[in-house]
Amino acid sequence: MVDKVIVRADPLSHKPVDLWKKYLRQGRICEPAKTLRLDAPIYENKVRFVCISDTHEKLHEILPLVPDGDVLIHAGDFTNYGDVGEVIKFNAEIGKLPHKYKIVIAGNHELGFEDGEDMNERQLAGLNMLGIKKAYEMLTNCIYLCDQTVDVYGLKVYGAPWHPMPGYSFYRSRGQALLHKWNLIPAKTDVLVTHTPPLGHGDYNSWQKCDGLLAGCAELLNTVEMRVKPKYHVFGHIHQMRGVTTNGTTTFINAAICDHKLRSEYDPIIFDLPLPPGRSKDDF
């Protein structure tokens, strides 16, 4: 069935600060949201999700701090440059975690993970000699998603790595190019995992390479709010904005672990979703 709602690129996509001000005037909502304590009990009728992102080769430092759960989500940037040793190390470390399902997407720092990548873009940033092709094939201890859905406990989780930061793998320009990728997200998605934040949620950043003070993607926000409407949207990328917000329909989670100096500074974030009616965890 074709989605009835069509999202179009916003003419102000390339001016995210101005566009977000416009959206706020129009009544868009971004409010702080409550989170579960990391020691909250796990229930048989609910699926416990544990969210992390942007560990930047520091996963080993937080392994003892990652709470148990049913599903682990890593929203990208688990390496610094996508080198072989970094990927092998991450795969071994994530394999030590007890979660039944471990879902991982790439971020802009997973250089070489993008199939058919335009290397001219990375050459301009001096990153063309880093990373190796198809390094994601080394990830044997997790489920790697790239524009794909996986069903866990009857819930649909979709992962996509795209972002608007030039010079890195998975870069696409703001506007129609990124919207083309977001159009691949199925409408019936319970948990959306992207590396980049949507515009206005967990995306404040002063680094000019992120187009000023707001790094999030307007087309991603509009895809989430107008068409997909997932229960949860998990992302990272902007380290200093780790936290949780809501628009009243979707809960947005910036699950960054490292701060802007790449120190493992923050805790994982957890949430629960109910199992489908009449099902138990033993069914899966």
What does this structure look like?
The mean pLDDT is 95. The protein has a seven-stranded mixed beta sheet with strand order 1-10-11-9-8-7-6, with no helix packed on it. A five-stranded mixed beta sheet has the order 5-4-3-2-12, with no helix packed on it. It is globular. It contains six helices and twelve strands. It has one domain: 4-Layer Sandwich (Purple Acid Phosphatase, chain A, domain 2). By secondary structure, the protein is an alpha/beta fold. Belongs to the UPF0046 family.
Q: What does this entry show, briefly?
A:
Residues 48-240 form the Calcineurin-like phosphoesterase domain. GO terms for molecular function: hydrolase activity. The protein has 284 residues and is an alpha/beta fold.
The portion of residues assigned to helices is 10-25%
Strand order of the largest sheet: 1-10-11-9-8-7-6
- The oligomeric state is single chain
Q: How does CATH name the architecture? A: 4-Layer Sandwich
The CATH superfamily bears the name Metallo-dependent phosphatases
Count the strands?
Answer: 12
Give the SSE order as H and E letters.
HEEHEHEHEEEHEHEEEE
The CATH topology assignment is Purple Acid Phosphatase, chain A, domain 2
> What is the rounded Rg?
18 Å
Domains (count):
1
User: Distance between termini?
Assistant: 26 Å
What is the number of helices? 6
CATH class (first level) name: Alpha Beta
Largest sheet: 7 strands, mixed
* Share of β-strand residues: 15-25%
Structural class: alpha/beta
The average pLDDT score comes to 95
